[in-house]
Design goal:
single chain; 412 residues; mainly beta; seven-stranded mixed beta sheet; 6% helix; 37% strand; rod-shaped
Length: 412
């Protein structure tokens, strides 16, 4: 009797349930392959949120589900979707913060998928999508992985986790690079401005052929300058870039650095102390380098008060002078490497006093009465300070009878 009452109550409830659905205009189509023991009104899947345009590094909150529209019946004995297929993410490192996460379709006829993002180990909220991929943009520096699960209108299956990868964004180019246009020592410093973004190290590389080719990149850590020494003559250029781990930004190239090393001064200049002929030689020691293309000298005819123009002697280290007039001469010498010259080395003074020419033959009277007479002669060529007069009597030896005669005659 109790069993009969239960059957009558079940039939009544089923009638009321189906009658109610008919009044609402709801149709229920039972699958041909199964008997639905627990019918229910189907819910629409939550509206998937857009992954585009999210603030960098933060996931948007979960989208609200759509309002349930009682349009069909489902069965609570529908299978729960299986785990999604393997998740595809960037391999190793992504360098622009834009990529696609995709996964294989789950078994069990899922109607939508949910995914969420983990950045630096912190999971965000669940997001929904109907497809099997999402394209993401604006991701900042950090480590990421993703979790995906498949869902139907009743429940979600097990989730699958992706591999972890890194987003490493390159810094910007450095703001500037400074290098000397010329250098005469082989020692100089280049420096550069900072770069925007996350910078773990700066790198530079050098060209010793005016930019035709460059050497290997050299890291200087957080330093923003580099000093070079011992550079030989040549034209150098430098490139600098900022790096975040293994990802580097654009390069900035310096202007040309022209290195022409200045030679060392000559150690000494040799010159005679005096000359009676106006003819003499000036010589000097070799420069210590590092490179000498030619030597130069200049002359002072007033003991060093003023000097004339520089004169090149090539690689010769001496100079012969002829016909110099009386005076006090001094010389300066320097070694040059192209247009770059050493400091000067100054000689001692040479005193030039040219020997006068032989005076004209002395003139004396043929016969002298009274014992006194005048000896005269013509002026010597050249600078004459004074004359000396010598006399010989009766074939004897000459003897000086007057010295420091300023004129060209003398009374005997």
């Amino acid at each position: 009797m109790l069993r009969a009452r239960a059957r009558r109550l079940t039939s009544f409830v089923s009638f009321v349930f189906l009658f109610g659905f008919a009044l609402l205009g709801i149709s229920w189509s039972q699958p041909a392959h199964a008997i639905c023991l627990k019918p229910y009104a189907l819910k629409a899947a939550p509206q998937p949120s857009s992954a585009r345009g999210r603030k960098q590094g933060k996931a948007k909150s979960k989208s609200s589900p759509q309002k349930v529209q009682p349009q069909a019946l489902g069965c609570r004995n529908d299978p729960i979707p299986g785990m999604p297929g393997p998740i595809q993410v960037p391999s190793g490192v992504d360098t622009d913060g834009r990529y696609t996460v995709s996964w294989g379709r789950a078994s069990g006829n899922p109607t939508y998928y949910q995914w969420r993002e983990a950045k630096n180990g912190k999971l965000g909220t669940w997001q929904s999508t109907y497809g099997t991929s999402v394209t993401l943009t604006g991701r900042g520096n950090g480590s990421y992985y993703y979790v995906v699960k498949a869902c139907n209108h009743f429940a979600c299956g097990d989730w699958r986790q992706s591999a972890t990868f890194e987003v490493v964004l390159p810094p910007t180019a450095v703001t500037s690079i400074s290098a000397p246009a010329t250098n005469n020592t082989g020692t100089y410093t280049i420096s550069w401005g900072s770069a925007s973004g996350q910078v773990t190290a700066y790198q530079y590389r050098e060209s010793s052929n005016d930019g035709a080719s460059y050497g290997a990149w050299v890291s200087v850590g957080s330093a923003r300058s580099r000093t070079f020494s011992g550079k030989t003559d040549g034209h150098y250029r430098y490139q600098v870039r900022a790096c975040h781990k293994s990802v580097c930004g654009p390069v900035k190239t310096s202007g040309r650095v022209s290195v022409v090393r200045r030679p060392s001064p000559v150690a000494s200049v040799s010159i005679p102390a005096r000359s009676a002929t106006g003819q003499y030689t000036v010589s000097w020691s070799a420069s210590g380098g590092p490179k000498v293309t030619h030597y130069q000298y200049r002359e002072s005819s007033n003991g060093g008060s003023t000097y004339g123009a520089w004169v090149s002697t090539g690689t010769t280290r001496s100079r012969n002078f002829y016909g110099k007039s009386d005076g006090r001469y001094r010389y300066q010498v320097r070694a040059c490497n192209g247009a770059v010259c050493s400091g000067v080395t100054t000689s001692a003074v040479i005193d030039v006093r040219n020997r006068p020419s032989v005076p004209g033959t002395p003139s004396v009277p043929a016969q002298v009465v009274g014992g006194d007479y005048v000896v005269s002669w013509s002026r010597s060529l050249g600078h004459v300070s004074f004359y000396q007069l010598q006399e010989r009597i009766s074939g004897g030896n000459f003897a000086t009878i007057a010295s420091r005669i300023t004129g060209t005659s003398f009374s005997v």
